[in-house]
Amino acid sequence: MAAMSSSSAVSSQYSDFIGLHRNSIPSTCAAGNAGSSRFLPLRFRRFQIRAGKASPLLAGRPLRVAVIGGGPAGGATAETLAKGGVETVLIERKLDNCKPCGGAIPLCMVGEFDLPLDIIDRRVTKMKMISPSNVAVDIGRTLKPNEYIGMVRREVLDAYLRGRAAEAGAAVINGLFLRMDQPPAGSGERYKIYYIEYSGHGSGTGEKKEMEVDAIVGADGANSRVAKEMGAGEYEYAIAFQERVKIPEDKMEYYKERAEMYVGDDVSPDFYGWVFPKCDHVAVGTGTVTHKSDIKRFQAATRLRARDKIAGGKIIRVEAHPIPEHPRPRRVLDRVALVGDAAGYVTKCSGEGIYFAAKSGRMCAEAIVEGSANGRRMIDEGDLRRYLDRFDRTYWPTYKVLDVLQKLFYRSNPAREAFVEMCADEYVQKMTFDSYLYKRVVPGNPLEDLKLAVNTIGSLVRANALRREMANIS
Amino acid sequence: MASSMPPSLPSIFSTFSAKTHQRHPHGILLSVCHRNLPSLFVCRSVDDGSEAAAVEEKKVESAANTAAAKVENKAEVKEEEDEPLGSSNGAAAAKLEPSAFKDPRWVRGTWDLSQFVRDGNTDWDAVIDAEAGRRKWLEGNPQASSNDEPVLFDTSIIPWWAWVKRYHLPEAELLNGRAAMVGFFTAYFVDSLTGIGLVNQMGNFFCKTLLFVAVAGVLLIRKNEDIEKLKKLIEETTFYDKQWRATWQDDNKGDSRNG
C-alpha cells in the first residue's frame, strides 16, 4: 500500500479544521467525512496521509480513549491502548455477564493473545456434521495432536481479558454508557460521554457521571449503543437461541471432545443447529436470519434430532442473542470507531465472532497508538480508517470464502446433503480446519482443488436430482 | 418445510429468491421493533444471565418478537423446563413415536444393493427412487440422529452413468433440440439478410458471437423465471462485498441498503 505523507499540505489543512471535511471529490461528499480526503472510494488500496503524525501535540496530558463494552473486543482494545501509553477507560455494564455464546475460539487466538490454557474448558477435536437425512460424517481426522477448537466460558474469558487490561493500566469502570456529545466534525474538541456508574455489589443503582475523552471505541456488542449514537446504520442479524442442558455423565462422555452440527430445513432455514460441549453441560441451540419468529420450532427440531444423545438431560438455562450478519454501513465516524460485534464482524457460515472481535479491538488500538505517537498527539479519523483498512485487507478473503460457502451450501436441503457429503473428504477437512484454526485462506494443491470442485459439483447435482425425484413422489 | 423445486439445473438458485424477499421486510420490521425495546431494564435483561429463568424467557420472547406465539410459547417453554428431556414434550410430542424409517431394503444404515438386483445387474434407478423416498419421508418426519444406527449411505455409490442416463440425457436432448431450432432459424435469418451462407457465417466474427450467445442463452435460460433468477444471482454474488465496502463509500447509499 502506498503511503503519502504530505505534511505541509496537511498542516495547512489543520490550520482550518472545517476545511478538512470538505471534500473536493464529489463522490465522497458527506457531512462529517474522512480526514484523509484523498482516498478513492470503492477501493481498498489507496493513498493515505499519515495525518496523525503531524497533528497537534496534546498539551501535558496523554490521549484519553473510552472503550465502551468489556467483552473480548473491549478487553483487547483496552489492553493494547494502555500498553501503548494511552489513558484508557473501559466501561462495562455487567462485570459477571455470561454472554450467550457458542464459546468456540480458534487455535490462533490462544497464541496471539497469550491465553492461559486453563481458560479453555474443553478442547474439541472431533466434529460431527449431520445432514437433513441424518447422514453423519465425522471430521477431525486430519487434526494434529496439538490442534483443537477451544471451548470457553464467556464470563471467564471476558474477565481474564479485562483483568489484563487493568494490569496494563486501563481503568475498568462498572457502568452503563448512555450517550455521547459529539463535537463538530474535525474540530479536534473532546467528546463527552454520559454514563451511569454502579457503586458495585450488584446494587443496581448508580450515579450519573460524565467524562471528557478524545476518542471512543464502541465494543458494546450487537445492540451497540455507541453505534446508534454515531449513526452507524443497521445490519441484518440472526437470532441465536440456545439452551444449556445438563445431561447424564455417560452421555456427556460422548461430547467430551466432540461438537455436533445439524443442518436441515427443520433445524434452520439458513443456519445450523448445534450441540457444543461446555464445562459440565452441553449447549443445544440454533439460529436463523429469515425466520426469526419460528425459532422455537427450530429449537424443538434441534432437540429432536439430538434426542437420543441428550435424553435425560435437564435444561438449566435458556438464552438468546442477536448475531450480526455483516458489518454496519459506517464503522468509523470522526474519532469514534466500532469493533467486534458492534461493527458486525461475525463470519457467515460458521457464525464465529470472538476471535475477530478481539483482533479488531487490537488492530483499532494499535492504529490509535500509532496515530497518536503513543498518546502524545491527537488522532483523527484517518488513523481509525487505517485500522479499518488493515482489518478489511487481512480478513476479507476469510469472510468472502465463508460467505460463498454459506450461499452455496446452506440454501436448501439438497445443498446441505451435498455439504455433508463433501465433508467426508479428507482434503476438505484439512482445508477447513487449516483456515478455521489459523485464519489463513491457503490456496492448497491445484490438482486437489480441481478434484474438489468436480466432487462438489457432483454432490450438488446428485442431491438436486434426488430432490426432483422427491418432488415427483408427492 | 421444503417446497418442491422446478426440475432444472438452475433449481439450486430457486430458494434464494424466497430468502431475499423475506430478508428485507424482516430486517426492517425486526430492527424497528428491536429498537423499541423501551426501558433500560428490558435492554439489559435480554442477555442478563442472573435473572430467573422465567423472566429470561419473557425477554427471549421479545427478542424473538412474536406477538401471537408469545402466549403459547411461554407455556411450552415452562413445560420443557420442568420435565427432563427425552420424555415427550412440546410440539415434538404430537406426531413422534420413535418410528424410524422402515424398509426391508434399508439395512444397517444403508441400502442393501443385493436386494436391488434385476436381470443380474443392480437396478440403480430403483436405488435412486428408494433414497428419494427415504428423504421425502424424513422431511415430513424428522428423526433423531442415532449413534447406534448411523446412516452411512453416500449417493456417490450410485455410478455416474446412472445419474447421467436418468437426469442429464433427457434435459440434454431438450436443450439440444432448442439449440438446433434456434440455430437453424438464426442462420436462415442471417442468410436472408446478408446473403452469407452457413459455411461462410462460421468464419465471421459477428456470427460466431451470435452463435455463442445463442448457446449460452439456451443453456442458462431454460424457463421464463430463469432470467429473473440470473439477475438476482448476479446481484447476490456482489451483495456481501457491497456491505463491506459501505463504510468506505461514506454516503447515504450504504444506510438505505441495510434497512
UniProtKB/TrEMBL annotation, chain A:
Pathway: Cofactor biosynthesis; tocopherol biosynthesis; Porphyrin-containing compound metabolism; chlorophyll biosynthesis. Pfam families: FAD_binding_3. Residues 64-94 form the FAD-binding domain. It catalyses: phytyl diphosphate + 3 NADP(+) = geranylgeranyl diphosphate + 3 NADPH + 3 H(+). InterPro entries: BchP_ChlP_pln/prok, FAD-bd, FAD/NAD-bd_sf, Geranylgeranyl_Rdtase_fam, Geranylgeranyl_Rdtase_pln/cyn, Geranylgeranyl_reductase. Its EC number is 1.3.1.83. Keywords: Chlorophyll biosynthesis, NADP, Oxidoreductase, Photosynthesis. GO terms for cellular component: chloroplast thylakoid membrane. The keyword Acetylation does not apply. GO terms for molecular function: FAD binding; geranylgeranyl diphosphate reductase activity; geranylgeranyl reductase activity. The keyword RNA-binding does not apply. Catalyzes the reduction of geranylgeranyl diphosphate to phytyl diphosphate, providing phytol for both tocopherol and chlorophyll synthesis. Belongs to the geranylgeranyl reductase family. ChlP subfamily. This is Geranylgeranyl diphosphate reductase, chloroplastic. It comes from Apostasia shenzhenica.
UniProtKB/TrEMBL annotation, chain B:
Keywords: Membrane, Transmembrane, Transmembrane helix. Coiled coil: none annotated. It is a multi-pass membrane protein. Residues 67-94 are annotated as: Disordered. GO terms for cellular component: membrane. The keyword Membrane applies. It is found in: Membrane. PANTHER family: UPF0041 BRAIN PROTEIN 44-RELATED (PTHR14154). This is Light-harvesting complex-like protein 3 isotype 1, chloroplastic. It comes from Apostasia shenzhenica.
